Amino acid sequence: MSKNIDHLMHEDRRFPPPAAFAECAVARPELFERAAEDRLQFWADQAKSLVSWHTPFTRVLDWSNPPFATWFDDGTLNVAANCLDRHIDAGLGDRVAFYFEGEPGDRRAVTYGQLTDEVKRMANALESLGVTAGDRVAIYLPHIPEAAAAMLACARIGAPHSVVFGGFSAESLRSRIDDAEATIVITADGGNRKGKVLPLKPIVDAALRATDEQPAQSSVKHVVVVQRCGNEIEWMDERDHWWHELRDEAKPDHVALGFAAEHPLFILYTSGTTGKPKGILHTTGGYLTQAAFTHRNVFDLKPESDVYWCTADVGWITGHSYVVYGPLANGATSVMYEGTPDTPHTGRWWEIVERYGVTQLYTAPTAIRTFMKIGRAVPNEFDLSSLRLLGSVGEPINPEAWMWYHEVIGGGRAPIVDTWWQTETGAIMISALPGITTLKPGSAQSPIPGIAIDIVDDNGTPISTYDGGLLTVTQPWPSMLRGIWGDPGRFIETYWQKFGSAYFAGDGARRDSDGDVWLLGRVDDVMNVSGHRLSTAEIESALVSNPMVAEAAVVGAADDVTGQAVVAFVIIKSSHADGGSPADQSAQLRAHVAQQIGAIARPAKVYLVPELPKTRSGKIMRRLLRDVAEGRPIGDTTTLTDPAILSVINAQVH
Ligand code: WT7
Predict the structure, then answer these.
(1) In which element (H, E) is residue 178 found?
(2) Measured distance CA(9)–CA(326) in Å, rounded
(3) Ligand 1 centre and the CA of 642: distance in Å?
(4) Residues 137, 122: Cα–Cα separation, whole Å
(5) Does the residue 222 lie in any domain?
(6) Measuring CA to CA, which residue among 205, 234, 207, 239 is closest to residue 224?
(7) What is the number of the ligand 1 atom nearest to the C-alpha of 418?
(8) What is the domain-level CATH number for residue 588?
């Protein structure tokens, strides 16, 4: 880490905004002045200008009972009407909302008019299945327009959705369904991934089936199935319904009612420091305000002419805020692509940029580093001259990847916005504003207007030097999480206990002499693999659920492409010592984790070791295992019960 920081600090390249860009940029420097003068008035102005209200609000923020905030709480609105109906009313029904491209090459342009029709019908259909405001709906779909339609249909009737990424296992899906007590699951027969059909409905069936581990009947009464791949699936007549049949039978008209600004919009599960994922709760008015504001200003959105593409899946917060809610609230035209970047060829993304004339591309550093490895010859074959802005999210972008992105993809012309935020923050918090900020490769730069942050030491004292510290958000913000579903205690303990009324993000950060912010990675037991958050505890508990495992320790080791890679150290029970070669056993354990949690959590390496490094109080010292995994000299081992164990482990790894 210290080598990285040193390296970052010597970054002295600067990219001032090109004059032509600055001249017609959406974000104006006055935003900063207005927010500094009166932060709450600033957000109230954004809420009034970017969101349509059924009942206007008169109150902005109530922070009298921290950390439980309310924003705009006497206002009412309908999020789906904001994303759809008001654009139709403005005569934009023929504007394309999504240029959808399936992985096999099927294409369709979905207009605002068509999306509105689909959402109204599905809102009626969900109501006819008994869903009422406040009921939770689980969504387990591929990255297809029906995913956005399903989310909006839920929002329209005030039923909070819980989208579960299509790569998660039956076990992960079931635990999320149970935690939220969802009554409906919306899924598809399958999705397309790497040239194959990834079955989804069978995973839903498995998740809902009673087994030894999950004997109780689930809360789910109905399963709605989008026909996507035509793969063979089982059917339970009394429980399962085809999406297209419900839609075609449903009434086309649906009146969008106003819901209170603090009505729950969605729950999205994310990993924390324990084995149990947290259901992050977001509400309506503040969330939509900040999602729309950041989408417009950070991405310089000109909705009449732009074709915007955020490559994230709807299963993650980036997909919620910057594929669905932000862009649709702003009346944007987006690209939505179902598949992987290298199917059927490594130029697929660039072909899509060329085909639709994409103007803004928002993606993750891990993707950029993968393309960098393949080489510039592939993107160079395509016309990328339509791109005028690039975005990055999910993990720190190293200056080398930044420069490559800037030159090879952005033609040296397009500004890059490196956006820091989290599932919990709901929307972008720290980022350059294009046309205003002089860019520095590798730095997320400054909090956006209306956001207040600080970097503090372990006692909460602001750090005055340029040393690294802990990133906090010092004032409540409109799209902040409102809690952890069903667990207010964990909400307080995780984010607020450490620094009182300041929000603790779990990230390390530092400021440089210009005051720009550099993110330094997680400071807790959370890993960041390809921009996806995974907890060491979650993977450890998946490993020890395998009968051959006695004990397990998981660390995130630096990886050139994915940022971090999951590396596991496992002690096999003596009763299973003869259960196959070490190579076989570690392959079995890698597959076991993928089956328990999902393929994203599959460890890159599983080392079978005789013992784990522990302190006298029995705490596993993951820091030392990280040294081993990253091939560094091993740190201080004096507090270990048995310092010799590290040389044994080290010899095994290297
Ligand atoms: C964690 C949040 C926000 C959508 C994607 C991930 C890391 C995110 C950046 C960035 C450095 C970043 C942080 C954060 N992170 N963006 N631009 N620079 N780190 O959402 O799964 O909630 O993860 O991702 O560590 O805490 P998430």
Answers:
(1) helix 170-180
(2) 34
(3) 36
(4) 13
(5) no
(6) 239
(7) 17
(8) 3.30.300.30
User: What are the pLDDT digits (tens) for 603-647?
Assistant: 999 999 999 999 888 888 898 999 999 998 888 888 888 888 999
- Across the chain, mean pLDDT equals 95
Give dist(CA 277, CA 537) in Å, integer: 10
Per DSSP, helices labelled H in 90-143 are 112-128
**528 is written with which tokens?**
């960041």
Peptide bond into 582 cis (omega under 30): no
pTM of the model: 0.95
Q: Does the residue 200 lie in any domain?
A: no
Main-chain dihedrals φ then ψ at residue 100, nearest 5 degrees? -95, 135
pLDDT in tens, 432-454: 999 999 999 999 999 999 999 99
Residue 618, domain member (yes or no): yes
Ligand 1, residues at Cβ distance < 6 Å:
270, 317-318, 393-396, 418-423, 444, 505-507, 519, 522, 528, 531, 533
Rounded (5°) CA angle 531-533-537: 150
The C-alpha atoms of residue 532 and residue 517 are separated, in whole angstroms, by: 21
List the domain range (segments joined by +) for residue 545: 530-653
User: pLDDT band at residue 8, thresholds of 50, 70 and 90?
Assistant: low
- Pocket perturbation via mutation, ligand 1, pick of 393, 419, 446 by most ligand atoms within 8 A of CB: 393
Running DSSP on this structure, what letter comes out for residue 461?
P
Please state the atom number of ligand 1 nearest to the C-alpha of residue 397: 18
604 burial type by CB count under 10 A (0-12 exposed, 13-18 middle, 19+ buried): middle
Contact status, residue 77 vs residue 258, Cβ threshold 8 Å: yes
Domains: count for the chain: 1
Q: How far, in Å, are 80, 245, 275, 326, 534 from residue 100 at the CA level?
A: 20, 22, 36, 18, 29
Q: Is residue 75 part of a domain?
A: no
pLDDT band at 2 (very low <50, low <70, confident <90, very high): very low
- Helix pair 112-128, 145-156: axis angle to 10 deg: 60
Sheet of 389-393, strand order: 107-111, 96-101, 334-337, 308-310, 360-363, 389-393, 416-419
Structure tokens at 76: 């009412």
Both tokens of 148, joined, read 């956005």
274: left (phi over 0), alpha (psi -120 to 50) or beta: beta
Q: Report how far apart, in Å, the C-alpha atoms of 275 and of each of 265, 541, 542 are.
A: 25, 6, 9
Question: Phi and psi of 471, rounded to 5°?
Answer: -80, 130
Cα 168 from Cα 313, distance rounded (Å): 13
Reduced to 3 states, what is the DSSP secondary structure of residue 509? strand
